[in-house]
Amino acid sequence: MKLSFFGAARQVTGSTFLLELDDDYRVLIDCGTDLSGKEKTEEPDDSFGLFPFDASMVNLVLLTHAHIDHSGQIPNLYREGYEGQVLCTEPTLELAEILLYDAASLYQRKLKAIEKNKKYSKKRRAVKSGPYYLSAQVNYAMDNFVPLAFNKRFKFKDNGWVTFLPAGHLLGAAHILIEVENNGKMESICFSGDIGRRNYPLLPDPYPVPEVDYLVCETTYGNREHEDDEVAEQRLKEIIQECCIEVPGRLIIPTFSVGRTQALLYTLNKLYDKHEIEPIKVFTDSPLARKSTEIHEKYSRYLNDEAKEIKRLDDTLFDFENLHYLKTNQESQSVAFHNEACIIISSSGMITGGRIEHHIAENIENPYATILFIGYATEGTIGHKLRNKELSELTIRGAKKDVNAKIRSTDVFSGHGDLEDLTYFAKQQNPEKLKKVFLVHGELESMLNFKTVLESEGFDNIQIPEKGEVFEI
User: Fold this and answer.
1) Ranges for the Metallo-beta-lactamase domain (predicted)?
2) How many whole angstroms separate alpha carbon 309 and alpha carbon 296?
């Protein structure tokens, strides 16, 4: 077999791995968008088009979970000639659908802006014909998604089986176990996908993976432990008490619409239900988050035991008396005139577009406002600069603003397992049986640290692939 690494190699984004079996059957595991900003906008020189491989020669796609850095290039894969199926779990199918349509809508707006630009150049035409896609391409791709159940061994070819194992991290997210029989001998490889953290709100703990011959393991938090060891309810209660009750103010929370928003609303619902905080108004300002919340309600059977019990007793996981969903832009903008203490939840989590920009612009100069970051923000984004308190002023929505609002952060809602969780996941394997470990989906510093930790646990033959590197396994 051959294993090629075309994304998430020495970086945290763009997961794309190609497994070529001995009979030339080709399985693509994830097909994600590179969100690092490192990709060139020019049309690629490679003769295969958008991908460094011939999309028409791929036989099957396996999708670990719905996040765009794992699923975002699937419509383009079909555009480039792929004709097979995408296998994933039921929740992943529905979450991927709303995320891909949202991406197509964003691309359409970008393309319109390009076409209106008076300096519309050859380079911009290359962008237009490059990695962007529209709703029609998403329609075609989604027609070929096929859902599989967790923990059911599925035969995808005469001598090949795949099993999706719960990974935590996001509703429907999976570790992917592939088993192939050659000459009476079984070989196995596991792709971790993104590994969730244990005891996370809403989601079950990552499922143990059976012993395999090869392991492809993510390393996002391979060099750090989570800072906050409190349970999410207690930490959030403390922050709300300080920012909205002791001194009546506004708590603005930039967050991601799919996954993180639901964990936050679920925790707020429990706090309100137990009457542990005053009934402050909560505004949720993201149409995509509303759709994602509905999908989480629909697939509550995939959540952890606590969430399933709350769903059984209350018939809802996310709704409470003072929760208000903002549908239109006009409703979103009107929140600026709300003169009581409140909580505003909006996307994107890195403040890289979306309605959150309006709320930041309206509140950044307010000393009674607090901006709470609950997730990772890529270096160079407004979110990263604010979270790290690098700015005394910023320009947002065309206006220069002083940073007078308080800046807070917590990682209790981080969906990625930390170093302890990653080590726990890897130690389910037998170092004497495991032939090779490949470290992916992390910055090089994280990978090197995690490699050292694994070596101290008795693992050897650990590889840190470069982008485009191919291994015989």
Assistant:
1) 13-235
2) 14
